[in-house]
Every structure is written in structure tokens, then in C-alpha cells.
Amino acid sequence: GDGGLREEVDQALAAAVLAEGNLLVAEGKAEPGKDLTVTYRAGEGHLGSEGDFRLVWGFNAWSQKGFFADMVPAPGEEGAFQATLKVPKDAAVLDFVVERGGQYDNNCGLDFHVEVERREGLEAFWSARAKEAEERRRSKEEAKRERIASGRREALEKARAKVEAVLSSEPRAPRAGEMVTLRLDASVSAVSEGVGVEAKLSFNRNAHPLDLPAAKMTPKEGKLEVTILVPSDAWAIDAKFVAEDGTTDDHHGFGYHLPVSGSVAPEPPQHVLHVAVEMAPIAKVGGLADVVTSIGRAVQDMGHTVEVVLPKYDTIDYGEVLGFRECESFEWGGTTNRVFTGIVEDLQVWFLQPGNGFFDINMIYGADWEPIPMMDSERFGFFSKAALEFLLQSGRQPDIIHCHDWSTALVAKSYWDDYHEHGLPNSSVVFTIHNFGYGEDAIGEAAMYSQKFTTVSPSYANEIRHEGCIAQYSEKFTGILNGIDPAIWDPLDDPHLPLAYSSANAVEGKSAAKRALRERVGLRNDDVPVLGIVSRLTQQKGVHLMEHAIWTALERGCQVVVLGSAFDPKMQEHWNELELGLRHRFHDQAKLIFAYDEPLSHLIYAGSDMILVPSMFEPCGLTQLIAMRYGAIPVVRQTGGLRDTVFDVDHDAERSESEGKGGTNGFTFEGADQGGMDYALHRAIDRWYGGGEGQEAWEDLVVRVMAQDWSWNEPAMEYMDLYYAAKER
User: Is the pTM of this model over 0.70?
Assistant: First the structure.
């Protein structure tokens, strides 16, 4: 902020006063907007008085830098050199060093400084800067809000267009209290063509008291029609269709829903409560944390009420929780359970701290491996039931209780066994599988007791649908793709990037990011592609293919940046040895960084041309989504969510169009072998180098990828459909 900058400028101004008569002097006053000549007495310094001198300068304690001026011999002064520059209008102090042949005179580490005389005085100068900064902040926030709102409007219109391809209405925007004609296109519907069809209609997400009989639809102009009067208190029309031969179209179990305007009773907000053991950014281990926060925010932004119940871990920095306070307690489970609350990422969060110490062990997961008398299943099982007890004792009656993964799967069974008929009668349970690889028994039990259960991508749902513990409940199972939060991942408003950019100036923005990335990690500034890898180093993530890709990319003249770490000490030791070997052979072409570094990850996404994600399985994956948001082209293995989000440039044009994704966006491979990955990676590298189409083809691909919407806009609407469907239990 300007507070810290002002302190640095004051220090530079003090140095400028002390430095009068030193090796570098200004001729006359430094005034905003006017020329200033600066003279360097080289003969008195350690650089010598012969050679080509260059003035390197910035202003306001180097907060603005990167300016250069060649120096020429000063007339009438032997061994002196000078340069003339225009003083920036918003400068309070000028900052200089002098360079000759790669050597610098930086005034013994203090640099040279010249005070700028400001007529309005420094207090007025800083006051004006603060006002301008606040105006810029408000303008930026407003622009960001409008971008997000525009994305929601576009997603809503896109979803409406998908429905209208099957079911349309006249008028297109039905009004409460007026007649409307519904038209079903049987040729693209799930009902059979050429047979009689009845419409089963209701209103307000099937919550309206009006019970309409099934209505026979009439053929007209190649479609089937039915006309109804919309009740004055209706805010949505609900429709399902049944043909005489028994075929039905209920829109994959969710029904069709058309919005109605002018209702005397607007849509009431739904109350959704998440019970989870992770939440970003305060208690994050994996993608579960991101999803809980992001889907919560997205649904809340649609006008609904969202809360989260979370264990009160001793690892959380509660200074990051807005308004954090203790509010109540309750007796349950043989102990006192203290309740704290606060706001995290605009969401109301309730933290439960049982007196048994289950969450005071300096970790989120891992009790099974510690010499302590508790297991993770015991800790989270207790929490799952305590969360329901908290709802009961605090008088909460959410419409939806949404639990996640094995860790809170017990919520589903416990709700129906212990609470539904004992004080919590109004809730339905939704369960999400984030990774089927852990806790199959608990997952199977939650699948049985939940009204709807999901996983994080359609393809992953198909991959696990027939697994024994959930197969018999597949009729209430669906895959909803995760998204990314556009408020967090936004290259137009990212403090970790040197230049804000969007699809409109992607080439310029990514070029600046690539230069900054190379400077940050120590890569040569060559005109070659950069391959980025941001990943945990595990077998699931395809480490053997990552390693092979590094050598392949280097052989093709690419540069490589890897950011990640391994949980397995042997795996980490192997990668340490790989890093050492690469450091000797490709010290300025490949950099492997084993750390958690959020700012660097942003810079890698922005500065890389390609991002590699060769996972053996991937329920959804966020890496490829973030990469595309930042204009890095994904090279991925076709599995789970990677298949649902990355459409191969050479092979998936038709699939991309049919799924309405806005065009192809990357390079994919199917096998788990090196040859398959090489096929995708070589094609990506060929495309970057020109591939017969010139560099413009790559730039067009970058622009297209950045324009695609991988936010939570569409998934949030799908989750709301799921929540309403769950309420029809």
C-alpha cells in the first residue's frame, strides 16, 4: 500500500539530502514533467572513466523502474558523463544507478537519489495519490463484478438455449397470470416420435399446491404443443413428458424448468449447508477444499443462503477469519462442544471444537500414523454427527445438507437414522464423491442414504458408476463438472503477474509473464516454448510421464518449469536426483522447484505456453482449467474430468461442438505409455513452432481457450437443479 511506499520514499529522500556533492548530481531542480540533466563523475568512482555508461533509473523508491538512458561525455568536465530525462509527473524522488560493461555503481548499496520539488507539498501529493488509488480500486472492483455478472448472464442464456433445443415456449418469457404454449421437439427428446405424449406439469420446482392432471399434447408444425394458464404466484414452470409406449423425458432426472416473470410470490432462497473437513483457503489439503468454498460462493451469489460447518482445527490461522468469535456450546458425545463462527470468502462458517481434543493434534489428516489414541475415521465420524447435533440444538432447518467424501459420508445415514424424525424434518441430503479411491464402504453407505449423490465430472461418474458399493443406486447418481472461481483466478486482476491481460491482449500479457517467469526461476530468454507442470508428484498424477515429457521437451528445444512436491520420501529423493542432473546439463533451460508457492504457480500458468497434466485418473482436475483461464494450452491424458474439459485440436472439433464448449482447446492422449504422451506433446510443440500454419495459429488457439468459461456459472445452476430434485424425495 501507499503507507509502506511512503516510508520507503521518505528514506530515499533522506538519502538524497545526505548525498549532495556525491558522484551523481542533478543540474538544477527536478520538477514534474520537465527535463532534468544528471551528471556522473566517473573519474571519481570505481567504474573508471572510459567506456559506454548507461543510466538505470526509476522513481518513488524504485516502485516504478525499468528506465534507461545512454550517457554522453559532459561538456567542460573531464571524466564526467551525463544524460537527460523527463521527470515523471507522479514522482517524489528519482532513483539511479550507473552501469558500464555489466558493472554497476550503486553508491555502496544506497543507490543515488534526487528529490523532486512538488509545489503542492508532499502531504497533498500523498493525499492525491491515495484518492487516485481508491478510485482505481473501486473502478477495478466494479469492472470485475461486471465481468463476473456478464459471465453468469451468458451461462444462464446458454443453459436456456440447451433447454429450448428440446422445450420452448410462446411467449419466450412466460408471465405469471397469463397463458403460455409449451412446444416439445420430439425428434430431439427422449420420448419416442409418432406416438401420443402427455405433459406432466407443475410450478415452483414442484412445490406449488396446484395439482394439474397430465395434459395431452397436440401435434403442430412438427412439434408437440400444450397451452396452460400460469398461476399468478408461479415463478417457474416444471415439465416432464411421458409417451404412450412408456418412454419418458425428465431431463436426466432433473425435469425441465422455465423461468416465469411477474409472480406475486418470488422464488424463495434455498438454505444449503455444507458439512466438510476441508475449506479453502483456511483448511486446505486438496481439491475438496476449493470445491466447498467455490460452489458455496457460486450458489450464494445466485441469491441462496449457504453455510459451512467445519472442525475447529488448531492449524487454522483464525486471524484470516472475518469476525471470528465464540458464540455458543452444546453438550453431546460425552463432551462439551464449543461453537465458533466467522466469515470465510463471504461464507458463514461454523467451527466445532469438541472437548475430546480430536482436532487439536496439529493436522487435518494423518492421525492413523501418529502415536495417539484416535483414528481419522473416528475423528471425522464424531464430527459428522456433531454437525447434525449442532443443527438440531441451534434450531437450523436447512433445505439441503451437502456432505463430502468419506470423511463426512456418515452425515447421510445419521441424518435419516437419528435426526429426520427427531427435530430435523425438512432437509434432504446430497453427497459428493471427490475421490472414489478412499473409504468405499462409507461412500456406499452415503450413496444409499442420500437423495442425490454426485461426483466432480461426468466422465469420472461413468468410470465409477458400476463399482459395487454404488452401482445399485446409479439412478440418483450424476457427474457435475467442477469449475474455478473467476474472482481468484483472473489474469486481468492478479497481483502476481507483471501485466494484466485477457483474451483481448493475451499475446502481450503472456509475453510479459513469460519474461517475468524466466527472470524469477533463472531461465534463458530465448524464443522457445515453455512447458509448465504444477502438480503433486505421485503415481496418480503420472510422474513417469512427467519425467519423460521433461526430456522430450528439452530435446525439442523447449524450456521446462516444474512446481510440486512428493509425499513419499523415496519419490522426492528420485526427483531431487533428477533436478540435480538437469541442473548440470540444462541449468538455464529447466527448473524444478519443490515447494508450495502460490505466487509462483500463478506466474507459471501465465508464463507457460503449455501445461502438462498426464494423470492416471483424475476425478475432475483444476490444473487444466486454471491453465486455460491463463492462456496456457493443456496437454492431458483423456481420463475423468480431463476428458470433459480438454478437446483435442486435431480430433475433437465435433465433440466440442456437440457439447457446446466453444471450440477445441488442447492436445490429448489416451494410453498411459510414453508413446501416447509423445504423440500429444509433439503435436503441441509443432503447433507452437508454426506447424505449417504460422505462429498466428497458436495465438488464435490461446485467445479461443481464454474466452471459454470454465467458472462455476454452469455447474452452480446444475447443482441448484440437483438440490431441487433432491427435495422431491
Answer: yes
